[in-house]
Amino acid sequence: MDKALFRWGVLGTAQIARKNWQAIRNSEHGILTAVASRTQERSDRFVAECQAEVPFATPPRALGSYEDLLTAEDVDGVYIPLPTSVRKEWVLRAARAGKHVVCEKPCAVSVSDLVEMQEVCRRNHVQFMDGVMFMHSRRLTRIREVLDDVHTVGEIRRIDCGFSFNAPEGFFASNIRGDSELEPHGCLGDLGWYCIRFVLWAMDWELPRHVSGRVLSDKARVAGQPPVPTEFSGELFFEGGVSANFYCSFLTELEQWAKVSGTRGNLNVPDFVLPFCGREVAFETWQPAQQVQGCDFKVEPNLRRWVVDEYSHSHPNAQESNLFRHFADQAQSGHVHELWSEMALKTQQVMQACRESSRAGAKLVEMGSGC
Question: Is 363 a catalytic residue?
Answer without folding.
Answer: no
